[in-house]
Amino acid sequence: QVQLAESGGGLVQAGASLRLSCVVSGRTFHLSDMGWFRQAPGKEREFVAAFSRSGGRTYYRDSVKGRFTISSDNAKNTWYLQMSGPNPKDTAVYYCAVATDVRRPQVPNEYRYWGRGPQVTVSS
């Protein structure tokens, strides 16, 4: 089994910074890829950022490029999403997800394990 525990959500003013964390525990040796997704009220879950170990690269949603950064601390089995300069349109529940050999990093169904998602609210 694999468990994901997220933290770092909350209320932040537009233009400030916020960092989300996702600790992955359990049987993690086979996991290779990680993604961040978000879901706003009344909207579908959408891709934010991803890292593909097999592809050796990161992916970002166009609207967050240059503002959000995905990173990891392998020693702590922790992934991060650094949100710099968020705006009210970034308000959503943010989810981290992991899987093995993801072919389409932007597609939620490619990921097997999910966190519960902290709420991020950006005030104007």
In short:
The protein is mainly β.
Note the quaternary state here: single chain
Query: Which term fits the overall shape?
Result: globular
Gap from first CA to last CA: 40 Å
What is the averaged pLDDT score?
94
Any low-confidence stretches, pLDDT <50, length ≥5?
none
Instruction: Kindly state the number of beta strands.
Output: 11
Structural class: mainly beta
Q: Over the alpha carbons, how many angstroms does the gyration radius reach?
A: 13 Å
Helix-strand sequence: EEEEEEEEEEE
Q: Tell me the major beta sheet.
A: 7 strands, mixed
Strand content: over 45%
Helix content: under 10%
Specify the number of helices: 0
General description of the model:
The protein is mainly β. It has no helices and eleven strands. The protein has strands at 2-7, 10-13, 17-26, 33-39, 46-52, 57-60, 68-73, 78-84, 92-99, 113-114, 119-123. The strands form two sheets. Strands 2, 4, 5, 6, 9, 10 and 11 form a seven-stranded mixed beta sheet that branches. Strands 1-3-8-7 form a four-stranded antiparallel beta sheet, with no helix packed on it. The mean pLDDT is 94.
Features:
124 residues; mainly beta; four-stranded antiparallel β-sheet; 0% helix; globular
Topology:
Elements: E1 2-7, E2 10-13, E3 17-26, E4 33-39, E5 46-52, E6 57-60, E7 68-73, E8 78-84, E9 92-99, E10 113-114, E11 119-123
Parallel strand pairs: 2-11
Antiparallel strand pairs: 1-3, 3-8, 4-5, 4-9, 5-6, 7-8, 9-10, 9-11
